[in-house]
Amino acid sequence: MDDLDAAFDSVLFLEQEFAAAGRSNGIEAGRASAAETAFGKGQALGRALGREIGFYRGFLLGLETGAIFVAVPERARKSIPKLKHAVNLVEQSVRSFDADDFLQGRLRLARAKFRALTKVLEIDNRLEIIEPRQGAPCGSF
């Protein structure tokens, strides 16, 4: 009888070991999957934010260098530094890893300054990002 009890006990302990190992492996796999998903989402959001800020920087550079052929009235000249400042604040928030709410507030400010400037310049201010074709080399659409 003791041999039979010992056999059942060893099977029970073996099951418990496998269950514990499976649980541990499951937790580790879940963490890895969550980290991978979060990384991908963060990368996508960061890419979109970078594109938007890059667009504002390019727009400002175009105005300053004359690459954007538009008459810049005095009212608009006063708005340009405000947009620059708002864009700088967003970039500063990104670099210092500010809380998302704080970053989003600064991004809303930059968008508002951009809309105000384009309204004064009488430029269509719809911002549309063109996504590259799947499999296309970088920079081609």
TrEMBL record:
Keywords: Mitochondrion. This is Essential protein Yae1 N-terminal domain-containing protein.
